[in-house]
Amino acid sequence: MKLSYKLLVALCSSLALTSCMEVLDKTDLSSTSGTLIFKDSTLTQLNLDYIYDQNLPAPIGSLGPEPTGISGLSDESYADSKLLQGSLLINEVADFGTKLDATNNYGKLRVINMFLSDVNGGTLPQFTKNKLRAQAQFFRAWRYFDLVRLYGGVPLVLSPQAAVGVEAKQLDFLPRNSTAECFAQIVSDLDSAIASVPGRWSAATDWGRITKGTAAALKGRVLLYAASPQFNPTDDQTKWQTSYTANKQAYDLLTTNGYGLHASFDQLWFQEVNNPEAVFITGYNTATGDQTKKNNGYDNSTRPSYAGTGGGSNQPSWEMVKAFPMLDGKKAGESTKYTYSDQLFYKNRDPRFDKTIAYNGATWPLNGNTAYKLWTYFVGGKTVESKATNTGFYARKAINPTAAAGDVQYSGTDWIEIRFAEVMLNLAESAVGINQLDEAYTQLKAIRKRAGIEAGTDGLYGLKANMSRAELFSAILYERQIEFAFEGKRFWDLRRWKLIEKTLNGTRRTGVTINLKTTGVPADFATNRDNVSLDQAYTDYFTIAFKQLDTKYDIAWKPEYYFFAIPQTAIDNNPKLIQNNTWGGAFDPLK
Q1: In this structure, what is the dihedral angle of CA atoms 261, 311, 478, 436, given to the nearest 10 degrees?
Q2: Are the CB atoms for 486 and 313 separated by under 8 Å?
Q3: Model confidence pLDDT, tens digit, residues 47-91
Q4: According to its UniProt record, where is this protein located (predicted)?
Q5: Could you tell me if residue 92 is inside a domain?
């Protein structure tokens, strides 16, 4: 994707609008209303591109009330967090946007609402207005979805609010809308987007803009949340039907417009324009010091520090490593064809394992070296790495193998927030919700076939035959854990299914330390290790020790965290805001 901030700055420059950025950076853009900007399609597009730049999601990201990276809030990785300690207090929940701040949710919503109003007041053709407004409506839906999945119902602000006092505080004296009203508004905005944006954009420079399929896929995700136990504890079938209808619409719109699974599970991250799996993306650019270009940051922060200039975050836990199935699709220890052992944990695994997890002795092309092998073992209590991985592993998904170490900080790999694979699994889960179990099998088998899992004599790719509704729900969540590892999905899946206590509470996540034996190891092992059979190395030369990563506490997630508290600062500013009933208030986030 080559638009947004890059396009905005480039056009400002080409049009010699020296104050363009200053105008667009204002929270209150009302001073531009009715002027040349919204009578000119290019200048209006600049404003829209600013909205893209403000609202496109960052790779993985962090949680609203907790700065910890999302992967560290589940069994996927490790991070110390008050959420997992069970010690989060109301006053420690981040402000959700009652002050004048362009970076919080309501600050961004204000910019979107002003754009929608100003475009309406402009003189562009109605068809053009509709297409521009539809993209902004998509991002309004995106922002409200972010709020609703955190808190439940929030105040719906659908037009620019007048300034109050010295600063604009657009939430003054507005009560919370019900959760149902918020979901309805999100769906309404997304339906408008579906109606007015193209199924595909014709120009390569428009790659990454919102399409009908993007809006439909987000609508499907939103309504899947609404049908999940977090919002649907009574298993209301009408919510599952609504979710199914939306996800089937997304699937059909996308396939009609040429979307589908990419041929390669790992290489899908490195094809940009016309990538069939990229439904909703954040585009980045490779650059060195050019302020008009934005780098994704994920690659540099995730790979080993010595393979870039940062590095080492998003490290897989042993629980994540062991979760991957075997080559026949059966879970470790359940396969009758492939024997699993902790000592040889890497053998005969689902092919996604080697494309997601980097482990001691793995061949991992990095920095243009296609034969590079990663070594993380310890000798005499000291790591052979310049800086040891805390868990014993690294995440290798979406890490560019060809970038030179000095260039990794400038990585321009696009981030795919919604892949076609997610649309398939959202459809599968919704189908299970309405007892269309065969359709769920169809989607699961397609995902596993692309992964490279063996079909088996029954053609089920390791899936159990004739699963019940409950078993299929579990199978889909398991598939999502593997397919979307380190894509920021696992925490949200556990939360919307209210499974965090069952999965994590009372446990401590685990890492491994791989030690080189003190006897029986060839003297030239350090210099010849790349040529040693990995099976021999693990069998004869290495020992594996396990360690607890959560050293301070057993995980103790609390039920009230399924809907976070409205920040006390927000309530202090607006007495009409009512706290959630799980935090001492009277607001029911389930209504």
Answers
A1: -30
A2: no
A3: 999 999 999 998 887 776 666 789 999 999 999 999 999 999 887
A4: Cell outer membrane
A5: no
